[in-house]
Amino acid sequence: MKKSTTGLLIGSALVVGLSGCASSASQSSSQSSASSDGSWYQHPFVCGLAGSVIGGSIGYATSSSSDEESGAATGAVAGAAIGGLLCADRTPEPVAPQCPSYGEVPAGVAVDAEGCPLDSDGDGVPDYRDQCPGTPAGVEVNANGCPLDSDNDGVPDYRDQCPNTPAGVEVNALGCPDSVVLQDVNFEFDSAQLTSNAQNVLNGVAERLVSNPDVRVSIEGHTDSRGSDEYNKNLSQERAQSVANYLVSRGVEANRMRAVGYGEEQPIASNETEEGRFQNRRVELDEWN
Q: Which domain holds residue 214?
């Protein structure tokens, strides 16, 4: 058999084999379940080696007797390059979801300019899943987009003046079973001047009242029994009004509050001890109907 015929037959056989490898590689790359490495015969190096043999055979077969070696070498280089390209991995790079936090978005859902579902109140729960639209900015919500209610009393935490009410206890609109003593709301000695610590406490009270705009409150001042009844009544009134004034400065509407001084009329402990007198000197917050 002539050299050219032999070379062409070998080359043709190898071309068929290389085409099969490339075809298999292409099919495998389109299957998501395929191994990332592929079969050994689909590797670009193996295909390049096969292509080199094919190219060399064809180059040898088609060259004249005087340039067989250079023809084979040129064919081998070209065949290796073509074989490597044929079997190169063409698996597309995975595209990251544009809105990964939302999962699969149902058809027809309103989206923004970036293709993400609308979240009108910015609470992290898209409108189409949000059972409590219009949540104020910064309020922590659950998976349904509703404000957290840690004690399950029906008053969300951001409005609840008594956030740790025992389960099953009936509460008012403030989230409290009854009037609540504003702990650590104290005054300078024998005056209505709030301490700096008292102001810090009232900042939180005001924030929750501002978030609960439909509730009116009664601010009630109390003293111990030292001093005259009239003096204590006046002092308790001034202290209750001082608390109301401070809450107004923090954004609570004045017409939602009333200040009442009870003096020494409603003790909650004995006035015979320092501890008892300390408990009696207090400011309470209650719902004002």
A: 180-287
